[in-house]
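Objective 1.3, modelling of assemblies. Example input:
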Amino acid sequence: MPNKKPLNIGVVGCGYWGPNLIRNFNSLDGANVRTACDADERRLAHMKRLYPNIETTQHFGDLVNDAEIDAIAIATPVHMHYEFGCESLRAGKHAFIEKPMASSVAQCQELIDLAERQKRTLMVGHTFIYTSAVRKIKEILESGEIGDVLYITSRRLNLGLFQKDINVAWDLAPHDISIILYLFDEVPVAVNCQGKAHVANGVEDVTNMSLTFRNGKFATVMSSWLDPNKIREMTIVGSKKMIVYNDIEPQEKIKIYDKRVEVPPHYDTFAEFQYSYHYGDSHCPHISQIEPLKVECQHFIDCIETGAKPQSSGIEGIRVVEILEAASESLRKHGAYIELRRTS
Amino acid sequence: MPNKKPLNIGVVGCGYWGPNLIRNFNSLDGANVRTACDADERRLAHMKRLYPNIETTQHFGDLVNDAEIDAIAIATPVHMHYEFGCESLRAGKHAFIEKPMASSVAQCQELIDLAERQKRTLMVGHTFIYTSAVRKIKEILESGEIGDVLYITSRRLNLGLFQKDINVAWDLAPHDISIILYLFDEVPVAVNCQGKAHVANGVEDVTNMSLTFRNGKFATVMSSWLDPNKIREMTIVGSKKMIVYNDIEPQEKIKIYDKRVEVPPHYDTFAEFQYSYHYGDSHCPHISQIEPLKVECQHFIDCIETGAKPQSSGIEGIRVVEILEAASESLRKHGAYIELRRTS
Amino acid sequence: MPNKKPLNIGVVGCGYWGPNLIRNFNSLDGANVRTACDADERRLAHMKRLYPNIETTQHFGDLVNDAEIDAIAIATPVHMHYEFGCESLRAGKHAFIEKPMASSVAQCQELIDLAERQKRTLMVGHTFIYTSAVRKIKEILESGEIGDVLYITSRRLNLGLFQKDINVAWDLAPHDISIILYLFDEVPVAVNCQGKAHVANGVEDVTNMSLTFRNGKFATVMSSWLDPNKIREMTIVGSKKMIVYNDIEPQEKIKIYDKRVEVPPHYDTFAEFQYSYHYGDSHCPHISQIEPLKVECQHFIDCIETGAKPQSSGIEGIRVVEILEAASESLRKHGAYIELRRTS
Amino acid sequence: MPNKKPLNIGVVGCGYWGPNLIRNFNSLDGANVRTACDADERRLAHMKRLYPNIETTQHFGDLVNDAEIDAIAIATPVHMHYEFGCESLRAGKHAFIEKPMASSVAQCQELIDLAERQKRTLMVGHTFIYTSAVRKIKEILESGEIGDVLYITSRRLNLGLFQKDINVAWDLAPHDISIILYLFDEVPVAVNCQGKAHVANGVEDVTNMSLTFRNGKFATVMSSWLDPNKIREMTIVGSKKMIVYNDIEPQEKIKIYDKRVEVPPHYDTFAEFQYSYHYGDSHCPHISQIEPLKVECQHFIDCIETGAKPQSSGIEGIRVVEILEAASESLRKHGAYIELRRTS
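Predicted structure (tokens):
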């Protein structure tokens, strides 16, 4: 039976993304943001102005030790995800951790194990799988309309915002990767990644990743903090149709193209052999305009209450981090093919 | 002193591209297409209908043995470039070979050596370096306006036309690579390439290449025969400004963005450290609309008459093929980093 | 029974458009361009170069008096359409006249009457009704998919090419008007037109026309020779769906939007009254890429041979000219509402 | 000397637009929204949730009679602007009235006179003249870069939101008209307007207006509630260059085209006479992203404190309403040319 009292949420990290979590959790009937935590007093003062009823603190311990807090949402720089996640779970709080889940596969595994032992909900902020657009694409794929998915190519580019502790792949590619894994419903067997650091020494600002899956499935992910335009575009090539998903478009984010190559079933001579190209209609399905972060926050609340496994649980989180870890290894090894061990 | 009599040209290969060569050579005052050669009678009949004064033959020997023919343009499938190129040069004809120059670096080198010995002009059909757009970009780069070029990312995608003897990288990437080498004025030190064959066994229809240059310079080249849209787009990221070159745009092919990341020159504490982002005007220079193939054909005629080295000579041709050869090796080795030996 | 011998065509006017007629008539099995006529020797020399077998003349009489010529296509400035059309028909030739058909309704009527008396085919070059895109739209309208057509708004803008003898409405709007009449299948009851002449005294270079039809149907036509972009766009608003037809798009010229306003069927209080807005999918039907002028030229040949009335006969021609004449009158009367007398 | 105590603002009308006024006035240091007024309790409850410190009332008298309130912002349906504006001014409050200022020229004049007698600031919500884009265009025009402005054509189209008390011209065209008057710095001498009501009886949902200025200057304004796309586009054609202002573009709202027609200065024969077309670069100036409503609200506060005349004062308000009134008259008279009496 659902809990009638709203869940009390603590949020740590009030920089770029944390305020969006606060706003969305606060807009839900089942949740209430009790405390916001940040090292920077000015950010806390700003939160207080926007939400006069919120408590603020510079000490993460105040969240963990507050018996009234049911769940903690972590929107700090990545290198603090693991520590804050562990402390939250150990204190018996449910944990919502922004993407990427942690700095290594090992950290992710510990968080998963801890959540299991503590019987607490652990969810990772893979926001895009909660968007109407990505869910619509998943629905189209499952309907069989586009045939077998052959490959996916994704680009996420813009000017800035540079991170200091992670490279552009760790910053931007978790979005593409989480969508690709969700759509393929399969993890890759290996990763190649090349890239370069042009602005900050040792921090790649452009990366070019290739993901190899079983049975010839393939994906590429291009990430950049150094592009004049904001681009968030993914092409899903199927054997029957093709989809372009342009997240920047305000209205028509998905376009389905009835286009394909047709290989003749049999032929006698090489000269007879001709591919034919099918060009048909294109189609933009209507997509409801719901803030995905609201859907995601509601899902976290629902999972806490029902005990269900989140759609972006620790498992999904560790899969993304495993790919990022392999990408980093590939970058160090000049783009070499890095096989993934745990492709469960 | 320039030759007053128009040069007689033989063209072999009247499939997709050859007719464009015939049309353009014929439109020049200094040239005259004397004979068209193709294995397919119907293609020859079609050429005859369009150009009643042209001779046609199914035998390449008829071109080589015709003392009136000064130069031969080769627009056949790639695997015939080497043989036809050698025969032409040996017969004392100047040779114009479509891109990619040949099937291997070794073949290219033989063609170069042969042309030198025969004192004949050898030119490769890297059409894009004769476009107003690419020349304008080169001019902008040389002016210093965009600062140091940090990286170039290029995509050339469409549905079809599948080749049977070469993969999509050999088919489409010569365009991107020849432009990138022209703009960087430098050859890469290594190549990574991943990709997959989805339609024809063993013939990759999507490839994702990374080129590593000295001093952190970098380029990526994405090629596909399986994309719903025709895309020919290149982004040139400089330290001061950025350029997007969209070859599909009918008018404004080049857009220069006054955008960059500014790193603070010095700072005392890490907390003080902040990148700043500069956003300024954008600008589309007017580009004259001249058919690049006409410029290219004229350049071939001029080089024959003056003895000058073409802007896309055998050297440029072999450099592109060396990268393609390395890309093929990288594809076989799961995307491994393949160093280029002869980066002269 | 169809004529086996190709029809001999004479073409008068080899400026901007005439060469397209020559090329297309020549590409048809059933036609052969025998003679090209123009006052300018250089244009004739150019035609001769392109089509060595064509005869050329500076005297229109040479076309009319040539017993071998079956039909004459008139692509001269508008003020010569009437005279050349009459001479052609009187000489027993079939006549194809470019749009607009003539300089006045009276001239059009004489041409229609003459063609009838002479039992010759009279066709007007309303090219757009022969395009795959406009025919597809007509088909969609007839299917009932978009409901009742409420209004059509059309824009045809570009920089140049200025005409000297007619204003921009006479130059560009015949395209829009012929499409609108074809789609509505109805002639307007009145025309308003405002505009201004900025470059050449007395020759409007921008006009803004409104067409009033029966039953609340409505259309607007904006024409300009002074716009930075080439725009050819038409929006057809139906009671159930809406169509945007963008002729500049190379591929997806038509887009159907499943959008509409829904008025509540009944309501008790004003406060209850709320419109609702339906937003659904959008859809781009595939359109075959056939040169419309070829379809149009073939249709002319077919009509001559079968005696059928062309889809753009003198009737369609006079309807367009009547609207243009009314537009000119409205322009002189400061945009006043000019009723059309013969709205048959 | 500026007032140190923030001005107390009352806002009447909490439907679609009023909440934006509340949010913006509240964000300013010099203002404080004291009371929100609306007939609908649910809207007031919603305001209270967003701004817990605000007072709410269903009675406009509570604003007028509150001695603490310095200024009243009126965001009600248009037919209430006059009454609420008069009551506010009579009570000694400064008045900010949304566009269009009132339902008639007579009402506007009374409001202007009353404000003058009461020595109170009267400002009209012509938001667009406070946008960075429109101000940038004005700056470009004043610099002489585009030469003389020949004509302006504007379109403001979307699906909905239907108004019940005014037609689409009164609803949407005030934006276009206020921008056009600001850019031309001149009022038109006459108005033509055609249009039709398709959805609600007697309420035009599409209108097509032409504005005639002195010296050949011209403007057109197309307005529609029945278009599949949201369009807010204006083209400003100058004798030297042309500007397209696309307000929907998130970044590059303004594009300047170096294009023009060049008329030869003199010529001997008609045959020699040729227009030439100049095609040069295009350019998108960077525009700062400031919320125009915030600029506008600040300007109202500043004008109250300094006594300066607002840039969108009652004068600008009455000019827009005079054009709308003439447009309504023209609509009734089938698009007739309606001269404006008071073109001061």
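The first strand of chain D starts at residue 7 and ends at 12.
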